[in-house]
What does this fold into?
Amino acid sequence: GEDVEQSLFLSVREGDSSVINCTYTDSSSTYLYWYKQEPGAGLQLLTYIFSNMDMKQDQRLTVLLNKKDKHLSLRIADTQTGDSAIYFCAEITDLSGNTGKLIFGQGTTLQVKP
Amino acid sequence: DAGVTQSPTHLIKTRGQQVTLRCSPKSGHDTVSWYQQALGQGPQFIFQYYEEEERQRGNFPDRFSGHQFPNYSSELNVNALLLGDSALYLCASSLSREYQETQYFGPGTRLLVL
It folds into this structure.
């Protein structure tokens, strides 16, 4: 089946690292994504990782994937107040049929305290 | 490079009415997907359009219909509106030739049904 789960809330101090976790159930997931949503706005693509990778780093963002445990995490280094937002994990399953259907978690609200 | 645009930004309707939402994809993209995001939830896939045809559909009733035009823009129509249709409607565009079909989202249309 298709299901993506995330913890609902995370609070950190400015300058600390944030780690947002996500678990998924579909073993045929090919790509996993992280999106950011600020209040009243659409979704901004942050990064993605292919399922045959363990890690991807992009500036302050590090994505770790444990395919055996179906666990994905997003680490934000040196978290800033501007990082306060809702973060969504999403998976896309087998693309052989070119379905392109994203399955989202319920989102993690990141609160960054000055 | 214009991103994904949606109109209108906000809309208020009453139960039983019909609504049409519009989306213009990112320049160069040929595929449009629609998602519904209820308050406090992650986006849910409604359907996807490619080559002016519905390619895949999520678990939404037939009251939800769509269309894609030759210029790749798209419309989402919802008939016989229910209170539960109140949500943020997000459009995402992607390029079919790109294997992972990364989806880029517009700002959304916030629909309130009274």
Notes: The longest strand of chain B covers residues 87-94.
